[in-house]
Design a protein that fits this description.
The structure is a homodimer of 588-residue chains.
Chain A: E1 21-33, E2 38-44, E3 47-53, H1 60-67, E4 74-83, E5 96-107, H2 125-130, H3 132-137, H4 140-161, E6 165-166, E7 184-186, E8 194-196, H5 202-210, E9 215-223, E10 235-244, H6 248-267, E11 276-279, H7 280-287, E12 301-302, H8 304-307, H9 313-320, E13 324-330, H10 338-349, E14 357-362, E15 365-368, H11 376-385, E16 393-399, H12 401-418, E17 429-433, E18 438-441, E19 446-449, E20 476-481, E21 484-491, H13 496-505, H14 510-524, E22 531-537, H15 538-546, H16 576-581, E23 584-586
Helix pairs in contact in A: 4-6, 4-15, 13-14
Amino acid sequence: MSLFKRTHTCGDLRLQDANKKVLLVGWVHRVRNLGSLVFVDLRDRFGITQVLFDPKQCSEQVYTTAKNLRAEFVIQVEGVCSKKLTANPNLSTGEIEIIASAINVLSEADVPPLPIADDTMEVNEELRLQYRYLDMRKGPILNNLVVRHKAMQSTRNFLSNDGFIEVATPNFGKSTPEGARDYLVPSRVHPGHFYALPQSPQMFKQLLMIAGLDRYFQIAACFRDEDLRADRQPEFHQIDVEMSFGTTEELFPIIEKLVSRVFKETMNVEISAPFVRMTYADCMDIYGCDKPDIRYGMKLKNISHIAEKITFPPIQDVLKASGIVKGFCIEKGADLSRKALDELNAFAGQFGFKGLAWIKKTAEGYTSSLAKYMAPEVMDAVSTAFKMEIGDCALILAGNKKPVNQALDHLRRKVAKERGLVDPKKFACLWVTDFPLFAWNEEDGRLESEHHPFTSPNFEDMHLIESDPLSVRSSSYDLVINGYECASGSQRIHDSRLQEKIFSILGLSAQSCKERFGFFVEALRYGTPPHLGIALGFDRLVMLLCGAENIRDVIAFPKNAKARDLMQEAPSPVPQDQLDMLHIRVRH
Amino acid sequence: MSLFKRTHTCGDLRLQDANKKVLLVGWVHRVRNLGSLVFVDLRDRFGITQVLFDPKQCSEQVYTTAKNLRAEFVIQVEGVCSKKLTANPNLSTGEIEIIASAINVLSEADVPPLPIADDTMEVNEELRLQYRYLDMRKGPILNNLVVRHKAMQSTRNFLSNDGFIEVATPNFGKSTPEGARDYLVPSRVHPGHFYALPQSPQMFKQLLMIAGLDRYFQIAACFRDEDLRADRQPEFHQIDVEMSFGTTEELFPIIEKLVSRVFKETMNVEISAPFVRMTYADCMDIYGCDKPDIRYGMKLKNISHIAEKITFPPIQDVLKASGIVKGFCIEKGADLSRKALDELNAFAGQFGFKGLAWIKKTAEGYTSSLAKYMAPEVMDAVSTAFKMEIGDCALILAGNKKPVNQALDHLRRKVAKERGLVDPKKFACLWVTDFPLFAWNEEDGRLESEHHPFTSPNFEDMHLIESDPLSVRSSSYDLVINGYECASGSQRIHDSRLQEKIFSILGLSAQSCKERFGFFVEALRYGTPPHLGIALGFDRLVMLLCGAENIRDVIAFPKNAKARDLMQEAPSPVPQDQLDMLHIRVRH
């Protein structure tokens, strides 16, 4: 047998290959020793092929070797592809088997610490992460990595064909603390100096526009030292895009085609474009959040004007305190049991609400938690506002605008999920535009950028920028898919004076501004083209493509929730002389 | 005019576009105000287009705006594409000009600190790096970045089509000090612990093979804290490839096709494959080095056996001390002047040689620096050994093998360069194979890996591994292009016991081995497929493609020779509270 070679993968062979002499390599998935015959399921990434060792058809030495195989041995097998008497419909190769004539054990294997052939056994995630390379052999994660790869290829080919140039921006930059924490790298050559790993290539991509590159992209590694959650990793990837000249009228169709292409080429899913567009203000109004899942209805409706006539004292109190009364209608929701409504009520309670009101419209009339506080004509008015049909149920909350929106958003998602209104095969894309330029940081008592300080104001609102900055809209946009924020971008400021004004409104002193962004503000002064861009969360996109619920399932070697690599055991202590060279010491 | 829009780039328009109404955007490259007419050269990455502002053909306001333009303003121009009376043959758009009817100044510009339109002015590199984004506007670096992008695309498409899956391996790994220094990242969550940035994804890619991925690649960022030289940067990129099953017979053709494809698709250069193969031993013999430029001849010849008859005492001393006499023949080299030979002699002196001997063969007979020490038949024998023709000149050195090889290698390169023997349009690729497995580290008095500790020995030499390790060849290979090492790879060890033995021969204690590579050696135990791989220096490859002599010219935002980013001013000091959070302090 030619060393290490194969003629086919373990997923290749079909009935039409019968009688071919073949060479396969792979892992022993299962061995069944029937005494007079040995069956081996041979596995690789492409499939499983059954191999039969029959002492009548191979040498005794080959048969003995086969008898002594154990799970996860790596072997090379020579044999003839033959039609099976009984096909195995669960395998793509199930119509054939290999009648082995020779075998070569390429690697033996100890008993693995987690089962590979047995799908039924639950393995805790710590062990799976420690033995990531074995967990991958089970299939799903490798499959996700292949999808990830295809999505990368698809992205790169699409953008390249559209004139975008991929440029690698530096991983060693300057620390400009804001937003998330930087990861720092001490310099050996410059004692007491540190590089920062990039939180995003934002300034670099804008500098490439200033340099005249015209169209840039990168699938960029980004680093943020944040407290981890289920969907966060210390490093993540984004599809980073920037273009000179043009507005969202040029950018949106490009991104829409990109997303459609990626879904089509990786999962064979059609996405319809152009995507729905909605302003941030409308979005908050209709969905109570800036990243709604629009695969299903249940739009929110503000009924404050009708609620004035609901005599329930708490509602009256809310309205007097400038609160709102808002809710949504569940189609065919009248079947919700008292228990189900109690659960929803408890759920609303998590957002600080004492009561979730409900109204059911039935053939016999209305039933409602507020029945005794609502005159028939008030009930009718509410029903009309929610466009209720017989069999529907409306849920209503009263309170301050922000918590009402937040709770209704979560209620809407919960109801959709529980009532099976979410089609997992559908992908609904939404542009949310015109976010506020600034947000108020309660903690520090100052304005901060809603997006980032390089975002252009909407020029229609420029007159308000000093008098009423919180009402100024920005030229920014998010792309929301199935209720997840998948991308975020903006038209950038291309005027150094406006950029300086924004920094000053954000309360950055001239000194601090110069230290942190001085070189960038200077760069804006030498002829900056109008430009805009976007960054798509690549890990999130791959999660959507794979239907994965955990970001770790779409990353080859992820960190756990404490930012540790359990396989390598990193981070780890390092010898003092290594720290000495870097001019640092650990502070105990 | 539609905001920020263009109908064409500044490199698009040709004679056949005459009479079209067009919108262009770009930078003012030059303005010539002729009093009654204003000519503007409008520039973008794609070209330069001449724009004419004629007060008879545009409003006064437009004309006044045009008169006040200065270099590097960003403008939008509307006008009609028209045939020029006198074409400019230096521009691809030179047959047309735009008769402007409207103008929109999108950005003004201060006078830039380095000239952009003036190619003749030398600008020092520090200033160029500080204003990288302006230096890019001059063209060459942007063009290199476009070539780099094409090379990336070409690589990815080729490998993807060949079944390789691109996987991003982690940037936060474990410090396993060896070879170059690690860059470290202090952990906030785990006080006193550090991540290391990857020097290469070596272990990860091998783990992906153990995981069953079958074929992997990545254009990977790698980090080494080395002292910088002209061709080094703290971070660099490599095309990292690994495949399971198969040997160099499978891998070499893939890499040959990859390299040919990249040269073809980026520079339209044909590279002939298969590449020449040569063992390390032969290579040292014939070229005196392991990365020869084989675009030209002048192969080295050991003439020690003839030199026994040369009566020059220093040569006799060398031979007695087991030294060698070696040289090469320069075709038509008899025209080398005494001055030129003196210069070569001085050059050899830099490598510790007191004298470079030479022999010229002319129609009148031999002339030689060794004439009086060589009998006519000895002269003939040497001439025959070097295959000298009339008009040739041989250069000869005597000494210990290593310095003789080193000096002859450099002499050969120098002679080739000076005599114009190097065809800059030719790309000659060479596989150098069978490197020694170990090298002797004089300083530490111990064996070290020539390639890296995961390299498989050549199994023919396994019996020598303990008795004579320095004579053991490895299953490793370099790809040399035009005298530069462009790639390096090997068959990997896939047997955990052999891997442990290699670590022990390298003098790693069981404890140290466990701490640094324990998880990896364990991984080898669970069924590791035979696998091999290679890493191509991507920056070096792009340098060859672009004909660049400095690595900084093929990187968007490079560091200077002291690892500083002069544009951002990184690395930099950071506030104490940031270090406090990371549990470190600067050691003064």
